[in-house]
Amino acid sequence: MNLLIMGLPGAGKGTQAAKIVEKFGVAHISTGDMFRAAMANQTDMGLLAKSYIDKGDLVPDEVTNGIVKERLGQADIKEKGFLLDGYPRTIEQAHALDAALADLGIQLQGVINIEIDSSKLLERLSGRIIHKETGETFHKVFNPPAAGYNENDYYQREDDKPESVKRRLEVNMAQGDPIIAHYREKGLVHDIEGDQDIEIVFSDIDKVLSNLV
Ligand code: AP5
Ligand code: MG
């Protein structure tokens, strides 16, 4: 299956992506995760990305389009399919993705659109914790680790500070609608209510995807 997962920052894209990958075996391509890995390795691309990400701005399209196209061209994608998380995020990126998929002879099969009111998101992002060893995402209140929360084993994202979150929400709200409209026209969009328990959100997504395979 070749899929996109879309939604505002904190909507639950990464949380649901992990579950989709586990059940359906697709490759998870998160542009945010790719940038954070490059930042951790202090590559040139990582240093460039950091100057945008920490403020909550978007990394320039030409950089982002390049890394996605390269990843989509790798051998495992045709075999396993993919779930793109956090891309496209501008209408220009959507057009670049259409062109890249056409070049590679790959057909997009569905867009999961997680809907949630923006008033819920600050609380989600400010409580997000990520396990240092496994990279798994939890929430201090909404999804605490089963083994208990030991502060030393977890970190919080730099861009989850309130100033960055405010900017991320502004940027993503301004860019999101034309992208969804682009895919709605193609009949690919499945709207999912994001303000529900994590397991219920997944069960709604699972129903949609089970009809696609
Ligand atoms: P990215 O990493 O994609 O961040 P984002 O879109 O802001 O989304 P998040 O990862 O913050 O949220 P999420 O929807 O994955 O939520 P999660 O599941 O973690 O991008 C970061 C930055 O990189 C961008 O700002 C930009 O600078 C750059 N970038 C990335 N892609 C780019 C692109 N295409 N173009 C240009 N720049 C790009 O959940 C959040 C929290 O809520 C967690 O704690 C979770 O446990 C909890 N939670 C999840 N679901 C529920 C639920 N149902 N109920 C209660 N709590 C829940
Ligand atoms: Mg994410």
From TrEMBL:
Biological process terms in GO annotation: AMP salvage
An MF annotation (GO) of this entry: AMP kinase activity
Main location: cytoplasm
Entry binding sites for AMP: T31, R36, D57, L58, V59, G86, Y87, P88, R89, Q93, R157, R168
Compartment(s) where it occurs, according to its Swiss-Prot or TrEMBL record: Cytoplasm
Catalyzed reaction equations: AMP + ATP = 2 ADP
Binding of ATP, residues: G10, A11, G12, K13, G14, T15, R128, T137, F138, Q196
Annotated Gene3D superfamilies: P-loop containing nucleotide triphosphate hydrolases (3.40.50.300)
Enzyme superclass (EC): transferase
Pfam families in alphabetical order: ADK
Known function: Catalyzes the reversible transfer of the terminal phosphate group between ATP and AMP. Plays an important role in cellular energy homeostasis and in adenine nucleotide metabolism.
NCBIfam families: adk, PRK00279.1-2, PRK00279.1-3, PRK00279.1-4
The name this protein goes by in its record: Adenylate kinase
Native species: Streptococcus varani
The organism's taxonomic lineage, starting at the top: Bacteria, Bacillati, Bacillota, Bacilli, Lactobacillales
